[in-house]
Design a protein that fits this description.
With about 280 residues, this protein is mainly α. The chain is built from 10 helices and 3 strands; from the N terminus they run αααααβαββαααα.
Length: about 280
């Protein structure tokens, strides 16, 4: 939490429990083998009231409070890093987080050559497709456009290299990654960043407790103890109202997907065969 804002202990605990509710349900749903679509639906429940100021404040406070609660031991740090990384990957798929444009040093000259080679071949198709809505699936345009790549340090793409992801190549200590695989690179970056933040929180927390005065967002040692107790807290079972909202949202998403498929001339998507309540996931 920034130093120019204030929050009482009850508010910190409340937003931290809201965040932990989503993290615990994501963890349980993944253990049950839930699809990405259902994981994304769970992630979309967190701090999305439509008020950007309120949602942003709750996001920052809950992040700070959960880091205080889970920074003490390797096991709790590992759990929080894993669940926060899962939440981040869901937000990437939902479009709440985006893949940034490549930096100049990441630009791939091979893509420029491929683009120039295909420019004439795609010119007519691009002209015909210009006035159509995005994602209309016109042949000869998106289907033939070569995928772009970027160069990143090989440490960032370690998981892609380890499983020999197609299209990923190594050269001179750097890795050429297709943009379709960049979300996984960003999730790994986020995992490392969260791990470093937890160690930094642990150091600041030890200093706060040693000085017995509180420091910054940590408050007094008594407040730290109340927040640290969140590591043992677990959310209750979903209420009937939560289940009803979940099923309604699932049906709405299924209907939107069906209408989108009809507009694009693709086979209709029903999705009703795996329509379950949130209670069935957790």
């Amino acid at each position: 939490v920034s130093h120019d804002s204030e929050a009482d202990l009850d508010e910190l605990v409340e937003v931290a429990k809201a965040r932990l509710t989503v993290l615990h349900r994501l963890d349980e749903a993944r253990l049950w083998g839930a699809s990405d679509r259902k994981l994304d639906r769970l992630a979309a429940l967190l701090f999305r009231t439509g008020n950007r100021e309120t949602d942003g404040r709750a996001e920052k406070m809950s992040l700070a409070a959960t880091r205080v609660a889970f920074c003490a031991s390797p096991a709790t740090r590992q759990w929080l890093v894993s669940q926060e990384s899962l939440l981040f990957s869901c937000r990437l798929r939902l479009g709440e987080k985006t893949v940034p444009r490549p930096e100049p040093e990441e630009a791939d000259g091979d893509d420029d050559d491929a683009t120039n080679t295909n420019t004439n071949a795609n010119a007519n198709a691009s002209t015909n497709h210009a006035n159509q809505p995005f994602g209309s699936g016109s042949p000869g345009n998106d289907d033939t456009r070569p995928e772009t790549h970027r160069w990143v340090d090989f440490e960032r793409a370690f998981t892609l290299i380890r499983r020999r992801e197609p299209g990923v190549t190594l050269r001179n200590g750097r890795c050429r990654v297709p943009d379709s695989a960049m979300p996984e690179v960003l999730v790994e970056d986020f995992r490392k960043e969260t791990t470093r933040a937890l160690f930094a929180t642990q150091r600041r927390l030890r200093h706060a407790l040693a000085s017995a005065r509180g420091a910054g967002a940590f408050g007094t040692p008594g407040a730290v103890g109340a927040i640290s107790a969140l590591v043992w807290w677990k959310p209750g079972r979903p209420t009937r109202e939560e289940n009803a909202r979940w099923v309604w949202a699932e049906r709405e998403d299924t209907e939107k997907a069906r209408r989108r498929a009809v507009r694009q001339g693709a086979p209709a998507v029903t999705g009703t065969e795996d329509l379950v309540e949130i209670e069935d996931l957790v």
